[in-house]
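Quick illustration for those who missed Monday's session on complexes.
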Amino acid sequence: MACNHRPPCLLAFFFFAAIASAQLSSTFYSTSCPLAIQTIRQAVRAAVAKEARMGASLLRLHFHDCFVNGCDGSVLLDDTPSFTGEKTAVPNNNSLRGFDVIDNIKSQVEAVCKQVVSCADILAVAARESVAALGGPPWTVQLGRRDATTASLDAANTEIPSPKSDLDDLISAYSKKGLSTTDMVALSGAHTIGQARCISFRDRIYNETSIDSSLATSRQSNCPSSGGGDDNLSPLDAQLFGGGSTDSLVTTYSTNTARFFSDFAAAMVKMGNISPLTGTDGEVRLNCRKTN
Ligand code: HEM
Ligand SMILES: *[C@@H]1O[C@H](CO)[C@@H](O)[C@H](O)[C@H]1NC(C)=O
Ligand SMILES: *[C@@H]1O[C@H](CO)[C@@H](O)[C@H](O)[C@H]1NC(C)=O
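Prediction with 2-acetamido-2-deoxy-beta-D-glucopyranose bound:
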């Protein structure tokens, strides 16, 4: 590509430099832990065979990790009397699942290579293997993330987009992470797997016009407007959008699976690259629930 204008070329250079400094690589463990990927793959397959929804839950864990100060395993840290992690943040509390599955994977990975594979990378690989196990698209997972020794409850409350966000809020939340509107729409296609609690979408189905009315009516049957049922589960798809500039892309994805799959895979790689800790930053945790 020709380089005619100075400022865009400079921008392109800095963009490149920023990506290069992340130092992730698809072959990161090929000599230090050649069995890592297959160990994670087999454990994810077993967990998804036992309960298909676990694939959705593991995918979401990686998202909630990456959007909070980068993909650094912070979402996995337990609260202690002297440490507050991210697990009680509004989007996470009584909602994230799969921590026990990650513990199981981590102990199997530790058994083949002690303290080599980070929890942040386990989340990235588990997300990819979950999508594969549920019939979604493949992608090359970049590796070499290290684990945070800190977490941020505040960032978890502010950086993970709320289900009450409007389209502009969503677009800007993703833009802050270097993700485009196309990435946002493609990634939201993750909601074609998994479940949501009534409490997460009650407002949408009773009080909003930007939702398909027959979908709203059908969801109301298992989600009362008041008097309980907060934890009743329903499939999620189509609850986030309705009436806006992204509708045509949503329609494209619903009729063109190949296009959805390739955009989703590309966006997963980008999401996995959000501010990783690399080199000698952070640590490789022995136990994903606590710092070493
Ligand atoms: C666009 C912004 C997003 C919003 C507002 C959002 C919101 C939500 C909400 C409210 C739930 C239900 C939680 C509950 O009721 O307990 C949910 C579930 C889920 N989300 Fe998202 N989400 C977003 C983006 C994403 C992304 C980027 C991914 C992954 C790539 C993702 C994957 C999932 C999955 C798989 C579930 C189901 C989890 C399960 O069944 O355990 N979401 N999301
Ligand atoms: C998290 O959920 C627990 C159990 O339902 C509840 O007792 C607690 O108040 C919640 N914490 C926050 C910060 O919402
Ligand atoms: C609908 O909106 C009204 C007015 O803001 C509020 O009082 C009511 O609780 C909402 N209903 C539901 C089911 O969210």
